[in-house]
Specification:
mainly alpha, 19 helices, 85% helix, globular
Length: 483
């Protein structure tokens, strides 16, 4: 567990850096351009996510799984590349044929940019999954920072030269190219001649993994995609592009609290996969509750703080225009508690070679998500989209837990979660008291209140000895190793 903790923390701190760069870019572009251009850029990313599903067809997840098993790595990598190229070409031709619909959906002519970004992002993604399969998770962290750096640097330079929303898209493309170049430079597995046997193995795993990818897309982008549909069919009385920009900014702000749990789950996958291949199921049963605890200790207080500071976060970080999404931010912050559990359980279920069950859970949640989005967006606008996402993800998490329990006996850290909730409640009341007494005007005021809340939560949560001892057990060896 110490090695996983070390890799997870390394990835966590790198992703903090990545998120800081991303947020700096979002803050700058939100203040300079406003919400409407972001209402075109975010649907561009949503469409990119749609196209990535048939383009990848679960191959990236399959290559991570097969390389992590430790045999025929070069053959699997060569086969994966050969499988992906025809898919990329086919999808690109389809985009060109449907370019008029693409323009209508996005509100700008970004067809060629979409194709170029699809190629670059898929190549970068394959290099990242290959590195994770080599159990070099920590090294992927540095590479992942390159995309937001490129987006910020190139995007801002192009914005200064009057490119508007195109500056955002070209910056993202530039960052993706940087990521793929450095990613493939780091991959140590050579590329060998592809074979039908290895292709069959990848596709057998990928056919289920692609369903999970659909679920991941629905979770990340279906709400924005559906909101964009309402705009493109002239439903402006319900949704505007400015609303989409505000919604996605709230979404991205809520994602900050997922950095730790995502880092742990990413580091967990190759190790659980290896233990599963060795038949060491007891080790897997012991490590999953240990992985869940730090994730929960992070997201529960984040929800309490967001419930108090939602409007201030959006107003000060972006601009008053974005406070229309204050309730959305609270709902999504609560949903992240579910995601913190799901991301660990989901990766564990796939690591024990049961992507089929993960796919079944995904199909159910995707259907619920789609239906609820259609109904609730029409009734409640962007708040409806947030509710739809939360309900569907609750179902997805429950199904993953049920399926994983068929193979593993997992003790959920219930007592620790309850105490974290108590500590978060104390923190929330304290922050509300400060918020009522002190007017939050600047970003320094906001961060001071956040730090105050974090201090209160940490002091209360560490009173509980099991949490204190587990924290020392996990972090102590890592700190000693670093020092």
């Amino acid at each position: 567990m110490v090695n996983i903790a070390r890799s997870g923390l390394k990835l966590f701190f790198a992703r903090i850096s990545k998120s800081l760069v991303e947020f700096l870019a979002i803050i700058i572009f939100s203040r300079e351009l406003g919400a409407s251009p972001l209402g075109t850029y975010y649907p561009f990313l949503a469409l990119l996510g749609i196209l990535a599903i048939p383009t990848d067809f679960g191959i990236s997840s399959a290559i991570e799984k097969r390389i992590s098993e430790g045999s025929d790595e070069s053959e699997y990598l060569g086969t994966a590349i050969v499988l992906k190229v025809p898919l990329l070409i086919f999808i690109s031709i389809s985009i060109l044929v449907a370019h008029q619909y693409v323009i209508q959906y996005l509100g700008a002519d970004l067809t060629i940019s979409l194709i170029a970004t699809l190629f670059a992002s898929q190549a970068a993604k394959l290099s990242m999954t290959a590195l994770r399969g080599e159990r070099r998770v920590g090294e992927t962290a540095i590479v992942e920072v390159l995309r937001p750096l490129g987006w910020l640097g190139m995007g801002y330079a192009l914005y200064l030269n009057g490119y508007g929303v195109y500056a955002l898209v070209y910056g993202y493309l530039f960052g993706s190219v940087l990521m793929l170049v450095v990613g493939w430079w780091k991959v140590s597995v050579s590329v060998a001649k592809p074979t039908f046997e290895h292709a069959r193995s990848l596709l057998d795993y990928g056919r289920y993994s692609v369903v999970s990818a659909v679920g991941g897309y629905f979770y990340s982008w279906m709400d924005v995609a559906m909101l964009s549909v309402f705009v493109s069919i002239s439903a402006g009385a319900v949704i505007t592009r400015g609303d989409i920009g505000a919604y996605e900014n709230a979404w991205r702000l809520s994602l900050v609290v997922m950095l730790l749990s995502q880092s742990i789950a990413t580091a967990l996958f190759p190790q659980v996969s290896k233990w599963n291949a060795e038949g060491a199921m007891t080790k897997i049963e012991e490590i999953i509750p240990t992985a869940l605890l730090p994730a929960l200790l992070f997201v529960i207080p984040a929800f309490a703080g967001t419930a108090v500071l939602s409007k201030d976060l959006l107003r000060i970080l972006f601009s008053p225009e974005f406070t229309v999404a204050w309730l959305v931010l609270i709902i999504l912050a609560g949903e992240k508690i579910l995601q913190a559990v799901h991301v660990v359980l989901g990766r564990s279920l796939q690591a024990i070679d049961r992507p089929d069950l993960a796919a079944y859970a995904t199909v159910v949640s995707v259907a619920v998500n789609l239906i609820l989005n259609l109904v609730l967006i029409y009734q409640f606008g962007i708040v409806g989209a947030a509710i739809a996402t939360t309900v569907s993800f609750a179902i997805n998490t429950a199904l993953h837990a049920r399926y994983l329990n068929r193979f593993l006996d997992i003790d959920f850290p219930t007592r620790e979660a309850v105490w974290s909730t108590v500590a978060a409640t104390v923190m929330g009341i304290s922050v509300y008291g400060v918020h009522s007494a002190v007017q939050i005007v600047t970003i320094i005021d906001l961060f001071a209140v956040i730090l105050f809340g974090a201090a209160v939560y940490t002091a209360v949560v560490l009173i509980y000895r099991p949490i204190r001892e587990e924290t020392q057990r996990l972090i102590g060896p890592v700190i000693q190793n670093i020092s």
